[in-house]
Amino acid sequence: MNTELLTYLKDPNAQTFNAMMRGYRDEFATLDMPTVVFNHLYSLQVLEERPDFHPEPSTLAHVLIVYERAKMEVSNRREMMMVALLHDIMKLELNQTSGEGWPTAPGHGPAAANFIAENTGVQLWMRNLGVDPKIIAAVCAEHMRIKRYNFLSAQKQTAYREKVGEAVFIFSLQFSKLDNMVSFYEKTGLPTPRGVLASGIGIEA
After folding, report:
1. pTM over 0.90
2. How far apart are CA 35 and CA 24, in angstroms?
3. pLDDT above 80 for 201
4. Is residue 194 in a domain?
């Protein structure tokens, strides 16, 4: 896990944020990240999410945590990294307040898939890194729906798997574990000053 990111998560302030982002600017430059992707990601620093599911300081921090977890994957490492960077990229544009008073961004998964489909430069970037944009878009589109998979009936589970295809289904299951912040905070013991964590969420093992 990135040292500057951990420092920021333990003590989020302007100094630790800037130190963290200096490192990521350099890292993303080595990946030839398109400006449109970086700008969308950087804007996520202003967005906070419901603290029982997302105790991290911002959606940007969430994306970076998932990205770091993806870098440690043995299989599909580069693909996981791409999904990590792009799965929440449209959250700020779609952000609203739920009836319970929580921040929410309905449809942000499919919107991320559309972002990829509509940006040929982003697609070229992925291909240059040896990644199939269609797979990345499909997993981005499904990354929220897959969290409800264990709550479906057996019949609906079968229908869902057939609909998305086995490759996207398995990839989405793998990614969902990386995307689970409750398990990440429980395993790392990082402070959660924004509130109490939820537990027993979704498909996380």
Report:
1. yes
2. 13
3. no
4. no
